[in-house]
Write a structure and sequence with these properties.
It is built from eight helices and no strands. It is an all-alpha fold.
Length: 174
């Protein structure tokens, strides 16, 4: 996997982000709540499944196993989101809901919008609303002095922009 990762665009930056996200998850495990640690590790594992799928390398297991793992991770993330509701952690609840919304938008884009340009504007508008909400979460946590949460949220936005959107390629196209 690391050899394949090294051949991807922005490989060193991608690897740096993965290391930072891993360290961030470890910090949550050490000083955060249990639910935040599970949340962080589940999202990290989900990101790794996407990286494995897009790395164009042979997987050590069947591709349908990767989809099963991804589905299990999404179930864990949804349960954690409900956990935030039950514990009254509304900022994390909103943040999780926004990220789940983004995940849903990605699925919609992959499954339908590549063929359907009619709804493209709606998709872009929805994506803009979700990203605005995610950036607002960074600002809210920073304003409250929750630096680990602000760093985590900002890092995930950057990671998504780099890894999923390939922001550098996107900027070159503009």
């Amino acid at each position: 996997m690391f050899k394949t990762l090294a051949s991807l665009p922005n490989a060193k930056l991608r690897l740096t982000i993965l290391v930072l996200l891993t360290l961030n998850s470890l910090l949550y495990a050490l000083i955060g709540s249990f639910i935040s640690a599970v949340d962080s590790f589940a999202w990290l594992a989900l990101l790794l499944t996407f990286e494995l799928e897009t790395a164009a390398a042979p997987l050590p297991f069947a591709e349908n196993r990767l989809h099963q793992i991804r589905n299990a991770l999404i179930v864990i993330i949804v349960l954690v989101t409900f956990g935030y509701l039950l514990t009254g952690d509304f900022l994390n609840l909103i943040n999780s809901a926004l990220w789940l919304g983004l995940l849903a938008l990605l699925e919609i884009e992959v499954r339908t919008l590549q063929k359907d340009t009619e709804n493209r504007k709606k998709f872009v508008a929805a994506s803009f609303v979700v990203f605005t909400g995610l950036i607002a979460m960074v600002i809210a946590w920073a304003w409250m002095g929750s630096w680990l949460d602000a760093f985590n949220a900002g890092l995930w936005i950057f990671a998504f922009a780099l890894i999923e959107v390939d922001i550098f390629r996107f900027l070159r196209l503009r």
